Amino acid sequence: MSRKTIFILIFFIIIAAILGFTWFQMSYSKEVLKLEILGPSKADTGESITYTVKFKNNGNVRLENPELYFTFPDGAITENGQKVVRLDSTALKGDIYPGEERSFQFKARLMGRTNEIKEAQARMTFQPSGLKTKNEVKTSFTIILGNVPISLNIQMPDQVANNKVFTININYTSNVSYPLNDLTIKVQLPPEFTLVSQKPKGIDNEWNIPVLNEMSGGNIQLIGSLSGQDKDKKVFKAELGIWQNGNFVSLKEAVRNVEIIAPSIYLSQTINNSDAYAASPGDQLHYQILFTNIGQDALKDIVLISRLSGNYLDLNSVRVPIGNYQQGDNSIIWDSSQIPELNYLAPGQTGKVEFWVNVNKRWAINSQADINPVIKNTVTIGQNTQEFITKINSSLVAEQKIYNESKYFINSGPYPLKVGQKTYLTVEWTAKNYYNDMEGVIMKAVLSPNVNFENKIYPEDMKISYDAGTQEVTCTIGSLKAGAGFLSEASKCAFQVSIIPELNEDALITGALEITGNDQWTGKQISAQTEPSYVPVFE
């Protein structure tokens, strides 16, 4: 036998010995220590599960330095947020004697989709008494998820006209018997979809739901348009789930298909003679709806319905010269007996209807759901339906107060003011903002000629400037979030002035305080102002 053959033979003998020893260790470990996981075979999403890990020493020697590693399934919600729990020898109550059996419990709530298989794993290491090598045993246990007591649905039209605005409502509710925290809704939109507005505002088509209690729910509203060819079909998908360790665990999914169609009637709308009008609180809106037959056949005896929605209109102010207003569902109906073009509309012919309605002067803002308000007008004529969205400007509020007490600065002098004597006063300006985020917000007012600017401002880092030539004081606020002063703190600035009154009459301190800013929702500049501020004077 050659030397090479001998080496090859020795090599295979060593490999066989190693494999045999490994197999022996594994079989020995399984025979010595029986490890199993007990639990239910099925569970609903969100249901509280208790895993029982049992182990028993079936051997004749003591098992020393035992350690147990329990791994929860993906998507499990645990009390301390751990996915892997390690119990050392102390936690396991020390060495395991022959015939001894112990058990430990691990609790979690399993999150996932119907029929999803969730696998838990257990691994134990130990050292048989008298041996230096460590042995290991493993086991696993699966649970199949049953009912997911969460609903998720997408409400939208089955058909939409090319490049025409429509509304998508994503509704969700929970019947899970405990609060669900930090949920996320992900929405997949076709690339041909152009978003006009969303409520509430999401980030990269994701919406966080901090808490979803049992028997509660919410809504995400998307308004936009689809572009494409006639008969094209587009897919919209929404998923509700949780993020865990960078992975999204999906709990519920909803899918809707929509078909793009070529309408036979072209609809357009103007408000106050503009096709891109941004309404303001207190406005009167003059709606004009134009309809044109873009088909090849004449249309006869048709009905046009305009349905207003939004909590921002004074629906008692609706005025329709020709047409029927139904206050119950906020709809206005025109038929062929009222509008000649609805009786007979030849190809290429255009007709028109009109009405007036007022925007409420102002309304409360109670949550983030109230920001970026819109007025929606859903117009239906024949088989054609189109939504028109009108954005509403924010409303800025400026407040101006004069203090003689030392609120921000140390003031002195008589108050009421006394002729011929100097008094130091504090002027405080407050900026509030209702409905939309604002940028470039500034407040400014002109001081009375006999009022001196003392160059003391609050806060010290606030951008307050004074023009000695014009006596104008300007406070630059910059960004002002929707709800500032209502959902969050208002923006304030203050400065000190002094005055020596010459006449025994109320003294003018500042003229009207004006606030201006750029509305990030509508793109319009918004302004408001106060009355001038006076203080009393005596001789």
Mean pLDDT: 90
Global Rg: 37 Å
Based on secondary structure, the structural category is mainly beta
Strand content of the residues, in percent?
over 45%
> Biggest β-sheet, characterized?
5 strands, mixed
Please mark out the parts with pLDDT under 50 across 5 or more consecutive residues, or reply none: 15-28
Total E-strand runs: 42
Distance between the termini: 131 Å
Q: What is the 3D shape?
A: flat
- Order of the strands making up the biggest sheet: 2-9-8-4-6
* Helix residue percentage: under 10%
Give a short summary of the structure.
With 539 residues, the chain is mostly beta strands.
3D structure, described in words:
By secondary structure, the protein is mainly β. 6% of the residues lie in helices and 55% in strands. The chain contains 2 helices and 42 strands. The protein has a 5-stranded mixed beta sheet, covered by helices on one side. A hairpin with a 4-residue loop joins strand 24 (324-326) and strand 25.
Write the layout of secondary structure elements.
Layout (H helix, E strand, L loop, with lengths): L2 H30 E6 L3 E2 L4 E10 L5 E9 L4 E2 L6 E4 L13 E10 L6 E12 L6 E11 L4 E6 L3 E3 L3 E10 L5 E9 L4 E7 L6 E7 L3 E11 L6 E12 L2 E15 L3 E7 L12 E10 L5 E2 L3 E6 L3 E7 L4 E3 L4 E4 L5 H4 E2 L4 E10 L14 E8 L2 E8 L4 E8 L13 E2 L4 E11 L4 E9 L4 E8 L4 E5 L4 E9 L10 E9 L7 E4 L3 E6 L5 E5 L3 E3 L1 E2 L1
Parallel strand pairs: 2-9, 11-18, 31-42
Antiparallel strand pairs: 1-3, 3-7, 4-6, 4-8, 5-7, 8-9, 10-12, 12-16, 13-15, 13-17, 14-16, 17-18, 19-20, 20-27, 21-26, 22-25, 22-28, 23-27, 24-25, 28-29, 30-32, 32-37, 33-36, 33-39, 34-37, 35-36, 38-41, 39-40
